[in-house]
């Protein structure tokens, strides 16, 4: 896990594991939506999720192009964009994939304003 808003494309023509910016035709729209979410999240907006084992990982403005972060061939985000014209971003909300129940109220507070802002973009 991490704390970042990722946008298409997740796959790249070279299929290098990481570091390839794979720009979609709607790149500016995706960046706008990702920033709308990230800018209201107290951790995501810093661009420094500080996840255990990945303490040096950074994401400017709390967002990343999927393939630049790591290449995923055949991902749902890209599939839906290409074949169904759905504009999706992927939200990584926690360093822990399954946070304990006791942490859920904090996670809600971290994401509430971001979710409302994202919904307003519709």
UniProtKB/TrEMBL annotation:
GO MF terms, alphabetically ordered: metallocarboxypeptidase activity; zinc ion binding
Keyword match Hydrolase: yes
Domain of life: Eukaryota
GO CC, any one term: extracellular space
GO biological process: peptide metabolic process; protein processing
All copies of domain Peptidase M14, residue ranges: 1-122
Key words, A-Z: Carboxypeptidase, Hydrolase, Protease
UniProt keyword Hydrolase present: yes
Active site: 92 (proton donor/acceptor)
Entry similarity comment: Belongs to the peptidase M14 family.
PANTHER family: CARBOXYPEPTIDASE D, B, PROTEASE M14 CARBOXYPEPTIDASE
Protein name per Swiss-Prot or TrEMBL: CBPD Carboxypeptidase
């Amino acid at each position: 896990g991490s704390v970042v808003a990722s946008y298409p494309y997740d796959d790249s023509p070279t299929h290098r594991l990481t570091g390839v910016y794979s720009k979609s035709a709607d790149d500016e729209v995706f960046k706008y939506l990702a920033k709308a979410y990230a800018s209201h999240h107290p951790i995501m907006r810093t661009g420094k999720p500080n996840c255990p084992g990945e303490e040096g990982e950074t994401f400017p403005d709390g967002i990343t192009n999927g393939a630049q972060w790591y290449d995923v061939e055949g991902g749902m985000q890209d599939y839906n964009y290409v074949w169904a014209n759905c504009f999706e971003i992927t939200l990584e909300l926690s360093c822990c994939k399954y946070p304990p129940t006791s942490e859920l109220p904090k996670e809600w507070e971290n994401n509430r304003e971001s979710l409302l802002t994202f919904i307003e973009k519709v």
